[in-house]
């Protein structure tokens, strides 16, 4: 947890690894302090020793269950005499320390988020603060810790509200000042169930490994149950610190939306200095086995072309493999391309192949963005096509896809990948020559007929388009 907090950039004023004057900061090192306060409660009559066995406690639970009542300690040892206590001690009977709860009355707090919260004491029963092995329980530890460390505000999830009652009673019995409590709503999954592993990643380290940035994560988590009163959604850490106020925290449950999280992270990712983004993507490509080396300008060129599609660093893998792949046959089996096919796509394919045979396409491919644009215009002029009727079919036939980065930039990067040999086989690079050979094999007489009968992409249907 400490590593996660440090990665997120959430620094603490004092605590583990940053000592102050109220340490030690690990509960395992504070046992003597807890025993001191437990003895104080025992001496004041706010706590007592309970010698009940596990069997006796189970019998109490069963009796309450039979009466349709919540389980509650029956107070057997609450009024025991000194002689009775000494007799059990002499026998070596294990015992716990129980906090003595009044049999009637209420406890109220003014929760910073939920307003007044009240509990009836007759539903609680005397509760354990020290186990029979001498170890203090959670509610006792945190009350002592918060008081001795002079904690002013306790902000936590609403599921801790029941614990607050016990902690307030301990504060009051010890004569210690209460902190201000605020209980925020839980973060729920999209189906409004409690967020769990079945909904995907649930730990900071998992999101880190997926390529999320600390600043993106802090930004998104801050917006789960809080806003600054504006429509703004992108904040730096300094902006969040300056704008945050408890009175803007909402009572309603927050819904964890992974798509929104990715979008916010993408805003932070693309706003990084380009040198930093180049370093991150280059490391990812090399580590994932797509890139044999980071030498030369390829990584920088690739990031420049692909960064508009990145939301998390790990997206860089799919973005690169998508760019160098050539799923033409699969795309031609999609109803999405019906309009392009119906507009005499065969004519454009033949024009492209003609320029490939003459060497014009290779020259444009190898000469950069400006020459590529000239080639596109030349192809369009030969068929009296322009605009969408020209650009969309060229994109489909050259890249195998109907969408992606600017095609001129994409083709230029594709050539650099091919010429440099920097990509490993795993990347799935399809060269220009391989693309044109596959394009030549398309049986255009079957394409329109096949598309008319398709409801979804299918490898079997794709195979039927070529012979």
From TrEMBL:
One of its GO terms (cellular component) is mitochondrion. GO terms for molecular function: ATP binding; glutamate-tRNA ligase activity; tRNA binding. One of its GO terms (biological process) is glutamyl-tRNA aminoacylation. Residues 2-263 form the Glutamyl/glutaminyl-tRNA synthetase class Ib catalytic domain. Gene3D superfamilies: 1.10.10.350, HUPs (3.40.50.620). Keywords: Aminoacyl-tRNA synthetase, ATP-binding, Ligase, Nucleotide-binding, Protein biosynthesis. Belongs to the class-I aminoacyl-tRNA synthetase family. Glutamate--tRNA ligase type 1 subfamily. NCBIfam families: gltX_bact. This is Glutamate--tRNA ligase. It comes from Ceratopteris richardii. The lineage of its organism: Eukaryota, Viridiplantae, Streptophyta, Embryophyta, Tracheophyta.
């Amino acid at each position: 947890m400490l590593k996660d907090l440090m990665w997120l950039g959430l620094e603490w004023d004092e605590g583990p690894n940053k000592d102050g004057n109220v340490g030690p900061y690990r509960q395992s090192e504070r046992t003597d302090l807890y025993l001191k306060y437990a003895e104080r409660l025992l001496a004041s009559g706010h706590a007592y020793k309970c010698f009940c066995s596990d069997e006796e406690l189970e019998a109490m639970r069963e009796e309450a269950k039979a009466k349709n009542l919540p389980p509650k300690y029956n107070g057997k040892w609450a009024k025991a005499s000194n002689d009775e206590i000494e007799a059990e001690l002499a026998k070596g009977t294990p015992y716990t320390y129980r906090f003595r709860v009044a049999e009637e009355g209420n406890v109220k707090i003014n929760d910073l988020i939920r307003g007044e919260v009240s509990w009836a004491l007759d539903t609680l029963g005397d509760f354990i603060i020290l186990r029979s092995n001498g170890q203090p329980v959670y509610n006792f530890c945190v009350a002592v810790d918060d008081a001795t460390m002079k904690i002013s505000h306790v902000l936590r999830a609403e599921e801790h509200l029941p614990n607050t009652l016990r902690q307030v009673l301990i504060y009051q019995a010890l004569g210690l000042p209460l902190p201000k409590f605020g209980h925020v709503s839980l973060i729920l999954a999209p189906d409004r169930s409690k967020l769990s592993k079945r909904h995907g990643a649930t730990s900071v380290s998992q999101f880190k490994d997926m390529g999320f940035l600390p600043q993106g994560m802090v930004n998104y988590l801050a917006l789960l149950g809080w806003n600054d009163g504006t429509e703004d959604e992108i904040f730096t850490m300094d902006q969040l610190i300056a704008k945050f106020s408890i009175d803007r925290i909402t009572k309603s449950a927050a819904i964890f939306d992974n798509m929104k999280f990715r979008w916010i992270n993408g805003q932070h990712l693309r706003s990084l200095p380009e040198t930093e983004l180049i370093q991150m993507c280059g490391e990812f490509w090399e580590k994932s086995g797509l890139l044999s080396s980071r030498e030369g300008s390829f990584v920088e060129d690739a990031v420049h072309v692909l960064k508009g599609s990145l939301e998390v660093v790990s997206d860089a893998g799919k973005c690169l493999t998508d760019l160098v792949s050539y799923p033409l046959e699969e795309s031609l089996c999609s109803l999405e391309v019906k309009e392009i096919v119906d507009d005499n796509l065969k004519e454009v394919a033949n024009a492209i192949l003609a320029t490939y045979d003459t060497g014009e396409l290779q020259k444009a491919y190898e000469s950069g963005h400006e020459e590529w644009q000239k080639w596109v215009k030349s192809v369009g002029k030969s068929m009296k096509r322009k605009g969408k009727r020209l650009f969309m079919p060229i994109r489909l036939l050259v890249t195998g896809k109907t969408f992606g980065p600017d095609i001129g930039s994409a083709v230029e990067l594709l050539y650099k990948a091919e010429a440099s040999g920097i990509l490993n086989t795993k990347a799935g690079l399809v060269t220009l020559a391989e693309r044109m050979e596959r394009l030549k094999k398309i049986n255009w007489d079957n394409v329109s007929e096949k598309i008319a009968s398709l409801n979804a992409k299918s490898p079997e249907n794709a195979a039927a388009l070529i012979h």
